[in-house]
Amino acid sequence: MPRKNGFFITFEGAEGSGKSTQIRFAVNYLKKEGCRVAFFREPGGTKVSEAIRKILLDKRLRDMRPETELLLYLAARAQLVREKIEPALRAGKIVVLDRYEDSTLAYQGYGGGIPVPTIRELSLFARGFRTPDLTFLLDVETKQGLKRSGRRDRVEKKSISFHRRVREGFLMLARHERSRFVVLSPHLSIAQARKKIEAKLSDLF
């Protein structure tokens, strides 16, 4: 199904929220419906961005400051937007992205303590004016999410209080932009969450 200007969908959520499972479903569903889909992850999606990802998730780098994290995430995003996302949208594709600016606001802002206005200003420089048309937020209770994730990488190993602030940050962002966000409750089963995602995608496409 060709689209003149494409459509930009992001999936967000704290550690262990089940994002990966639902993203795979959404991408497969859209393809079965005849949509042209481009899927990427953050940080990543390009050679440059994947190299930055390795640094950001390296559990040996425990002393990395939130400011350093922020600039690395934005650098990876700048490359991905210009190299992959913008061309795909211009070609009329549906772009599905695993994490975007909301994660930066939640993790480095609400979690790491960097002022949200500062992040928004720097993010505008990194991504340009490209913002999502639709965001699915998979909410999860913090302890349960961390148990599922296994706390393997540097970010997952941060304190429980940090991850609680991240969760609340995501929910606050969703409350402020209700027209863009679809929040999936942690009380939903995988199948129930999938049905809600399918219903929203069916309405759109």
Question: Describe it for me?
Answer:
This protein is an alpha/beta fold and 205 residues long. The chain has one domain: P-loop containing nucleotide triphosphate hydrolases (Rossmann fold), CATH 3.40.50. It contains 8 helices and 5 strands, in the order βαβααβααβααβα. The chain has a 5-stranded parallel β-sheet, with helices on both faces. Helix 3 runs parallel beside helix 5 and helix 4 packs across helix 7. The longest helix has 25 residues. The model has no long low-confidence stretch (mean pLDDT 95).
Helicity range: 55-70%
Give the domain tally. 1
Q: Number of helical segments?
A: 8
* Mean pLDDT level: 95
For the secondary structure, the number of strands is: 5
- At CATH level 3, the topology is Rossmann fold
CATH class: Alpha Beta
Strand order of the largest sheet: 2-3-1-4-5
Largest sheet: 5 strands, parallel
H/E series: EHEHHEHHEHHEH
Radius of gyration: 16 Å
What does the overall shape look like? globular
Percent strand: 5-15%
Name the poorly predicted regions.
none
The CATH superfamily is known as P-loop containing nucleotide triphosphate hydrolases
Secondary structure: elements and pairs:
Layout: E1 7-13, H1 19-32, E2 37-41, H2 47-57, H3 66-90, E3 94-98, H4 101-111, H5 116-127, E4 134-138, H6 142-149, H7 160-176, E5 181-184, H8 190-204
Parallel strand pairs: 1-3, 1-4, 2-3, 4-5
Structure in a nutshell:
The protein is of the alpha/beta class and 205 residues long.
